[in-house]
Amino acid sequence: MNDQVEKILNLITSSSQIIVLRHQHPDPDALGSQLGLAEILRNSFPSKKIKVGGINESSLSWVGSMDNLTDQDFAKSLVIVTDTANTPRIDDERYHLGQGLIKIDHHPDDDPYGTIRYVVPEASSSSEILWDLVSKSHGKLKINSKAARLLYLGIVGDTGRFLYSNATAHTFEVTADLLKHEFNASEIAERLSEITLGQGRLQGYVLEHLTISQSGAAMVIVYRDTLQEYQLNMDQAHTIVSVPGHLSNVKAWVVFVQKRDLTFRVHLRSKGVAINEIAKSHHGGGHALASGADAEDERELSEIYKELERAVESYK
Q1: The sheet that has 211-212: what strands, in order across it?
Q2: pTM here?
Q3: 50-108 pLDDT, tens per residue?
Q4: φ and ψ at 293, to 5 degrees?
Q5: How far apart (Å, rounded) are the C-alpha atoms in residues 304 and 297?
């Protein structure tokens, strides 16, 4: 057992109440790792109070729901944050009120917050890291079928159904072990693939309005009135993020989605060129090939796209 794992287990063992958080606008790995860890803790320590926090994600409501947390809950609890690279993205600003803070993540550790950090950037997902944590705990942490389903969800989500290069031999070993538990893996694949008619029409809108440079940098802006036209909210717009990447002449792309306050959520993706530095310069961050950021106005959108064009043009 390495030092970090031992420290985490000691802190968990000595805490009677634990709150598990994750990042804002959660994806399958954020929810899978958050709810999966909570289930692992409940299964391993039945006498402890385990709670989860954050805003419920409507498009992933079938995965699970959050608890209503008070300041007093935090004051009594050890707080564990999964799959969240930096503190502004933690989906409850009261994370610092707890009796300790643990960061478990697979993004680059640009914001080294927490009493203890367990960060493995080479892992496919935070869900994969949690399986490793259990395997190194010498039986102190135990995965049941419900936890296995949630960790499997996270791995499938962050590897793009095992299409991305972050799916390693170890990822498949972890997945094979999770599949030994009883849960319906096919249902997860079906759920993740389902879209509404409005989401399908929005995907068509993206292809119709996509700008592609000669170098292969692409961009599209989705305004609030477009979301309203297709009867979609911000959560439901996530299905369009991967759409430009299906085009053979697109090497890297950015999808801008306008928020209620008329600022923009920025989704950066790439097939090779690193784009996380662009995200970091616009109040965001993430992986080399998949990052997120925020932009104030269309002037900043133009800046981001120009930065993306330059990155693609200089990529060898």
Answers
A1: 211-212, 217-222, 252-258, 264-270, 290-295, 285-286
A2: 0.89
A3: 999 999 988 899 999 999 999 999 999 999 999 999 999 999 999 999 999 999 999 98
A4: -155, -175
A5: 11
Q: In whole angstroms, what is the distance from residue 289 CA to residue 270 CA?
A: 5
Convert 84-142 into a string of H (helix), E (strand) and C (coil). CCCHHHECCHHHHHCCEEEEEECCCCCCCCCCEEEECCCCCCHHHHHHHHHHCCCCCCC
Find the helix packing angle between 169-178 and 126-135, rounded to 10°: 70
Residues 6+ away with beta carbon under 8 Å from 12: 18, 41, 45, 78
Domains and CATH numbers, the chain: 3-192 (3.90.1640.10), 197-314 (3.10.310.30)
pLDDT tens readout for residues 135-190: 999 999 999 999 999 999 999 999 989 988 899 999 999 999 999 999 999 999 99
Compute the distance between CA of residue 30 and CA of residue 27 in angstroms, rounded to an integer.
5
Residue type, 43: N
